[in-house]
Amino acid sequence: MSHTRDTSAPTIAQVSLIGLFVAALVTAQLTASKVLAFELPVALPITGAQLQLPGAALAYALTFLASDCYTELYGKRAAQIVVNVGFALNFVVLALVWTTIAAPAAGAGVDPDAFATALGASTTVVLGSLFAYVVSQNWDVWLFHRLRDRTGPERLWLRNIASTGTSQAIDTVIFVSIAFFVGPAVLGVGEVPPNEVLLGLIVGQYLLKLAIAVLDTPVVYAVVALVRSHTGADATQTPV
Fold this sequence. Notes:
mainly alpha; two-stranded antiparallel sheet; 2 strands; 71% helix; disordered N terminus
């Protein structure tokens, strides 16, 4: 009996990249409300000697690494499906978390109030995170593919840095503006921070994300080269 390969079945690389994307996305959603502070050896304009950024910054940066690899290997349409299904799954995560918070608690285990405080992100953080996600991720996929149309398989570094760098700027401005300004000012949820604090949050978060975009370029090259060497996905040569 002869056996033929099912070319419609997803590969290990596809499942791994989608898994990384979803894992990082869920982690970012659950950690977005904590503001981190990192001391710098020197003071920078606007931010000073401390970078302040949402706790989701690192996890969210990984979603761009995964989506850029996926776009390079499997094309714009496939990447858009992953991004927009991920957007829908955000609501599943939120529904499960909020349902768990609302459910009656037993005497044992984590204190219900502490659990709600840790996982129950505010409405403005959720709205900012979701809106920033759907706009920036779709921009990332679109620009990456547009640059690939112009450069062909070459200059993967340019596609990765340009698409991620600009989309991270879009994401940062939208998220901070909605979560820390529009929400308090329009919805009355919390207090509006001083302008210098808002600007510091935007700049601090973006500096970290831009650094990650540059530093993850070798990782994107390695992932794409590894997958192509085993599957030949969507390419005739290794990009340079």
